[in-house]
UniProtKB/TrEMBL annotation:
Name of the featured protein: DUF1918 domain-containing protein
Source superkingdom: Bacteria
Domain DUF1918, first and last residues per copy: 1-57
Amino acid sequence: MRASKGDLLVQHGRVVGQHDQVSEVVEVMGAEGNPPYRVRFLDGHEAVMSPGPDCEVRHPDKQTQR
């Protein structure tokens, strides 16, 4: 898994009815885009995460950013 600053980290719910948690990568602490990542959640709190298999990185569409 590789991420860059500004990417979204999506942690999928693991049980029925649990929503996905979305956070923004604010700092890549590993080498070459590897974990751990400092992330900011929608409510503003930050955490350091080493994502597991229930996570995915979503890269923002570079074409829409101008």
